[in-house]
Amino acid sequence: FCTVYSPDMPSRLPIQDIFAGLVTSIGTAIRYWFHYTLVAFAWLGVVPLTACRIYKCLFTGSVSSLLTLPLDILSTENLVADCLQGCFVVTCTLCAFISLVWLREQIVHGGAPQWLEQNQQQPLNGVGQQNEAQAVVNGGVENAVLDQPANPAAENVVVGENPEIQEEQVDEEEEDNEDEEDNEDEEDAVVEDAADANNGAQDDMNWNALEWDRAAEELTWERMLGLDGSLVFLEHVFWVVSLNTLFILAFAFCPYHIGHFSIVGLGFEEYVQASHFEGLITTIVGYVLLAVTLIVCHGLAALVKFQRSRRLLGVCYIVVKVSLLVVVEIGVFPLICGWWLDICSLEMFDATLKDRELSFQSAPGTTMFLHWLVGMVYVFYFASFILLLREVLRPGVLWFLRNLNDPDFNPVQEMIHLPIYRHLRRFILSVIVFGSIVLLMLWLPIRIIKYLLPNFLPYNVMLYSDAPVSELSLELLLLQVVLPALLEQGHTRQWLKGLVRAWTVTAGYLLDLHSYLLGDQEENENNANQQPNNQHARNNNAIPVVGEGLHAAHQAILQQGGPVGFQPYRRPLKFPLRIFLLIVFMCITLLIASLICLTLPVFAGRWLMSFWTGTAKIHELYTAACGLYVCWLTIRAVTVLVAWMPQGRRVIFQKVKEWSLMIMKTLIVAILLAGVVPLLLGLLFELVIVAPLRVPLDQTPLFYPWQDWALGVLHAKIIAAITLMGPQWWLKTVIEQVGKN
């Protein structure tokens, strides 16, 4: 290429041109800098600050604070703290807004509950319209079927398996038929509204779709936050501030004050103050009262046939109901489980309720959070175990538990559609089940251990300052290294599944419940072509169960031909007695398993540790972890040996030689990778960051190699994780290579 210049071009660029170019560049840069500063100031300063100050002003509860609000917003006291608090408030309001939009989607797609649509010919989707038309044409029967709430909890019920649920269904159908008679007088009134309501709904839907699409095309994140250089974002800032204020008023201020006045009126004030969570409890009470008020107003609006306001009140009630149910399911239930676990295990740590009360008084927030966390972990592992059971047992045995893996399972739809008393019943049942399992697997074993081995308990978990490793680093290690290592071993899950299967097979053959627990897969495969009556002749001592029956028909309609998830089984004589014996057998097994888990690892760990530390008391986390690893290794070794037994002695010796060599190599690598590298990392961190911050220049820092190593392990894990997440470079390749080798 050869550069061609204009003939009147000077030989070198004039100085003023260079300066002009520089000035325009600097001008652009300054303009951008101002703009971005304004953006940052607006989003990180103005929005959180106004949110926080408005929130504080509303909750001081005096008129003077309202009058001085403009001055309060402009004041410069506690800027950083207020900004952080304001960010939290803004996050909460945005989450509430997104949840509301999402809930609206759920109601639109899943259909509103039957009572909301009852006397209104304006369903939200085509399917609903067809169903309602059919219901009107075919009278009560069809409606009774449609009215059944979609309830995955009772999904797999077999006729004859649970008479109580059938009775309930019969009752519901009778109620539905009565409703149908009541509705007939109202239908005339509805028809008049139907035409304009329907057209309105149609326009509404069309308008929504078009407008939202166009708005979404124009509005990008850059445009919304003001990063594209335009000043449109100031309007968005104004909208966010308004939205914040509206949400604080509607979702915090009103419920709080409703609750506050009712609590003061009922004279429960000192009880609420004693709980240390005054604001939260008051707000929840306010929401409960609000829900009751909405239901009453909804009933009144239905009486005087105000269709629009009736629907609005119904939707508001659904929003309040769903949010309260979420709080109960995710907040209250794990909290109850956590406290119950703590109370049942007090004797294990030689603590009393008084100690727990003192710790709650000194730090209520932390205590509650820790108990909630423990309860959440318990619920999570319980659910995981139920999923494992589902893999082993016949589909339909666990009909009373919700199947979390079911594609049709939608908890939010359940919250929208099922009435409150059903949720309440389910909640109480869950509390009873979870609570009795804790009693069976924690409280009872502890009593038995105390009776049989008086010197074994309590576990030693006191925090001593002269322990060789600080407890913090120990717990970090336990969470980061030990537990994942135990849980990530695919073997552990396989063993557990194998144990469950073995137990089920044994129990099935002892009590003649093999068909009920595991199904007749083998028989079905062999006799796929045989007639049912031949099978009946073969199992002459059993009464075969009638297929899926009425409930399955309902379920099929509800799920539009989805899977029912039930497998027929043959029913032995004295069936209820056998089921009772099965439950007793299960309880005894759980008790023995719990006893073994509570004693064996700690016993083994204490015995092993006594060689190293003598009679000194050690934190029980060490002994339990050590014992668990030893038990795990023993079981692993036994299973491997059993697998190799048939191959003869020479092969086993050959394998042992190979493995010994491998273990030697692994040990050397492990000492380098898990010992030296973390120790050096921890020391480096201590020398470069911790020591200069903590130790004055005229003093000598003390080093604790154990602690440095424990923190080094954590640093090594974090560094490796970040490197593996990042782009491809030599360190990532090396770490991957080490992992593969």
TrEMBL record:
Q: Where is this region: Disordered?
A: 152-189
Q: In which pathway does it act?
A: Protein modification; protein ubiquitination
* One GO molecular-function entry: ubiquitin protein ligase activity
Listed transmembrane segments: 15-34, 41-67, 79-103, 237-259, 279-303, 315-341, 369-389, 427-449, 469-487, 579-601, 621-645, 666-689, 709-731
Q: Name one GO cellular component term.
A: endoplasmic reticulum membrane
Q: EC number(s) on record?
A: 2.3.2.27
Under the heading InterPro entries, the entry gives:
MARCHF6-like_C
E3 ubiquitin-protein ligase MARCHF6-like C-terminal domain mapped to chain residues: 651-738
Locate the compositionally biased regions of type Acidic residues. 164-189
Catalytic reaction list = S-ubiquitinyl-[E2 ubiquitin-conjugating enzyme]-L-cysteine + [acceptor protein]-L-lysine = [E2 ubiquitin-conjugating enzyme]-L-cysteine + N(6)-ubiquitinyl-[acceptor protein]-L-lysine
Q: Which UniProt keywords apply?
A: Ligase, Membrane, Transferase, Transmembrane, Transmembrane helix, Ubl conjugation pathway
Can the keyword Transmembrane be found in this entry's annotation?
yes
Spell out the subcellular localization from the entry: Membrane
Tell me the membrane topology, using the record's own terms: Multi-pass membrane protein
Q: Extract one GO BP annotation from the record.
A: ERAD pathway
The protein's predominant localisation is membrane
- Is Transmembrane helix among this UniProt entry's keywords? yes
Q: What is this protein called?
A: RING-type E3 ubiquitin transferase
